[in-house]
Specification:
The protein is 38% helix and 16% strand. The protein is an alpha/beta fold.
Length: 204
């Protein structure tokens, strides 16, 4: 099984996906992978999300995980659907302990020093910084990361193609999460692939 660090280092941007129709799963995944973004975070925000994970896993080259995992029940469902990594918007002790016990690569959400310390107590040192812009942006992350030299982050929330390079230039940032790559509705695969190519070139 991959580590969460190796997954974070596969590409500079992890697409954060809200897929409302399972029929869109494969073409979206194919376009993103073709554009150089193999790591795909399928958020558990829609009724079909688990089926989307199953469908995307069939796409060659795709590394498919589950986002918006809120509790151990979500964790079990996501792992059962084949999720290769888990992302949560925050970190609670029940979810953190369950994720660690499962052995699945886990990227818990943090927004302050206390969250990071809670993660470190569980043996975790790779985190999502969320919501990145609303929590104070890069200046806030730099301040939070400073006391924790062992921690690395994937900022997510409000980041764009234009703002991503500044985040990626920070030593504590391994990648960013991006929701700008795939719009709502039927996927325009040419547009998605073009956006993915631009995003994958951010750390050339």
């Amino acid at each position: 099984m991959s580590t969460i660090e190796s997954i974070m280092r596969m590409a500079p941007v992890i697409p954060v996906l809200v897929i409302e129709d399972v029929a869109h799963a494969v073409p979206v995944a194919q376009a993103l992978v073709a554009g150089g973004l193999p790591v795909l975070e399928v958020t558990l925000r829609t009724p079909c999300a688990l089926d989307v994970i199953r469908a995307m896993k069939a796409v060659p080259g795709a590394v498919v995980g589950a986002g918006t995992v809120l509790n151990p029940g979500d964790l079990d469902a996501a792992i059962g659907a084949g999720a290769e990594f888990i992302v949560s918007p925050g970190l609670t002790e029940p979810l953190g302990k369950a994720a660690v016990a499962s052995g699945v690569p886990f990227l818990p959400g943090t927004a302050n020093a206390g969250d990071v310390m809670r993660g470190l107590d569980l043996g975790l040192n790779r985190f999502k910084f969320f919501p990145a812009e609303a929590s104070g942006g890069l200046k806030a992350l730099a301040a939070i990361a400073a006391p924790f030299g062992m921690a690395r982050f994937c900022p997510t929330g409000g980041i764009t193609q234009d703002s991503a390079p500044a985040w990626l230039a920070h030593d504590a940032v391994l990648c960013v999460g991006g929701s700008w790559l795939v719009g709502k509705g039927a996927p325009d695969v040419a547009v998605i692939e073009a956006r993915a190519r631009a995003a994958s070139a951010l750390r050339g």
